[in-house]
Amino acid sequence: MKICVGLSGGVDSSVAALLLKQHGYDLFALFMQNWHDTEGTLHGDCEWEEDRSVAEMVARKIGIPFHFVDLSDEYRRRVVDYMFDEYANGRTPNPDVLCNREIKFDAFLKAAEALGADMVATGHYCRKDSFVNADGETVYRILAGADPNKDQSYFLCQLNQHQLSKALFPIGDICKPEVRRLAREAGLPSADKKDSQGICFVGKVDLPVFLQQKLKPREGKVVEIFRDHYEGLPARETLEQQEEPYRYTPEDGKVIGRHDGVQYYTIGQRKGLDIGGHKESIFIISMDLEENVIYVGEGQSHPGLYRKALRIRPHEVHWIRPDLALPVGGNLRCKVRIRYRQPLQEAQLFCRDDGMYIAFDEPQRGITPGQFAVWYAADGEMLGSGPIER
Predict the structure, then answer these.
(1) For the chain, which residues make up each domain, given as ranges?
(2) Would you call 99 a catalytic residue per the annotation?
(3) Which end of the chain is less congested by CB atoms within 10 angstroms, N or C?
(4) Which DSSP string corresponds to 344-374?
(5) Cβ atoms < 10 Å from Cβ of 221
């Protein structure tokens, strides 16, 4: 079996390659370039060139062939354009999730297969296993990584069975400090390289500046909604009521500032509005795309920040294990997270004709349209996901 390791120049993929080499696999490295532009980025130069240089040195140190592929056109079309579209519609996308589904385990996988690979290995902190069902078919499972501080299963929540059949995660069973130790012991050039931050393959960005490449500024009002607004509102008892976000008009509060366009902001955001005069931080609790109004509330406990339920549209519900998919009318007790690194939350799934509802035991802060809700079984297996509708 021939394995292609996606070598990024970081320590995680480097150690993934090291472990596979030590186990005697027929292995080669493939570095992918996915981004050329520097507009809106905070480094101002082409970090990928340094990453490629480090990746090539790692491959040479380990003793495996090194290849290069430019997937920037695919990345722009399938990830970045999606980002712009989502922000333009007042939603907050997760490009890392899309990058894994559309690039690493699709376009990159095909490039690796063209070079003779049977499988692709990455430096993700997650685990994979499989079993044979009653029909003799192999079923693949994704499990949380052994390192609770680095579990990256969330970013793989849109993978399907075919993609998993081709995937290897060599460092899923070890913790980050051990990865660093192995890299140093082997003298890998990436041993002390800092972890990448920001948008996958783009890097850290000034988001408004980055988005202004396509989304033009549009000045609007910032309206503060005070806590007494919620006094006397009817209780939200049904699932549909709990999923429905609070709706506001400028008359419900007080204009306290201006902004450059709702497309540059996100629900739950604390920084970036540059509005003072409050004892506690103010948070974005709602955005009206059509009227270009941002609504904010003071304090982390502001009622407008919390909801007990969310919904995913029917065609956007994705089951990693199709054999476990809920039928309409079905429900499932599970654990859910609505953002990376959020502790798992107790919840119930309800499959309805109009989509998948997720009802949480406790109200959730900052439920954000466009982000992925991901559900897990009690044993840590990731079962499915979908983008939050609103």
Answers:
(1) 2-210, 216-305, 306-387
(2) yes
(3) N
(4) PEEEEEEEETTEEEEEEEEEEE---TTSEEE
(5) 17
Cα separation of 126 and 144, whole Å? 5
pLDDT bracket for residue 200 (50, 70, 90)? low
Backbone dihedral region of 107: left (phi > 0), alpha (psi from -120 to 50 degrees) or beta?
alpha
CA-CA distances (angstroms) from residue 349 to 104, 141, 227, 231, 372? Answer: 29, 20, 30, 30, 15
Sorted by sequence, the CB contacts under 8 Å of residue 139 that are 6+ apart come out as: 130, 131, 132, 133, 161, 321, 323
Pick one of 2.30.30.280, 1.10.510.10, 2.60.40.1600, 3.30.930.10 as the CATH number of 216-305. 2.30.30.280
| Number of residues written out for the chain | 390
**Which two three-digit tokens encode residue 322?**
């199709």
Q: What element of type H or E holds 56? A: helix 47-62
| 216-267: pLDDT as tens digits | 999 999 999 999 999 989 999 999 999 999 999 999 999 999 999 999 999 9
Q: What is the pTM of this model?
A: 0.92
CATH fold group of domain 2-210: Rossmann fold (3.40.50)
What's the CA gap between 71 and 108, in Å, rounded?
A: 8
β-partners of residue 334 are 347
Burial of 267 (0-12, 13-18, 19+ CB in 10 A): buried
Judge whether 2-210 and 306-387 match in fold. no
3-state DSSP: the chain helix, strand, coil percent, rounded to 5? 30, 30, 40
Residues 262 and 252: their CA atoms lie apart, in Å, by: 18
Quick one: which of 197, 203, 215 has its CA closest to 265? 215
Indicate whether 42 pLDDT > 50.
Answer: no
Which of 4, 126, 157, 200 is flagged as catalytic? Answer: 200
- Write out the H or E segment, with its range, that includes residue 332: strand 331-337
**Residue 353: Cβ within 10 Å count:** 7
Catalytic residue, candidates 4, 99, 126, 334? 99
**Using CA atoms, how far apart are residues 72 and 213, in angstroms rounded to an integer?**
17
- Whether 46 is catalytic: no
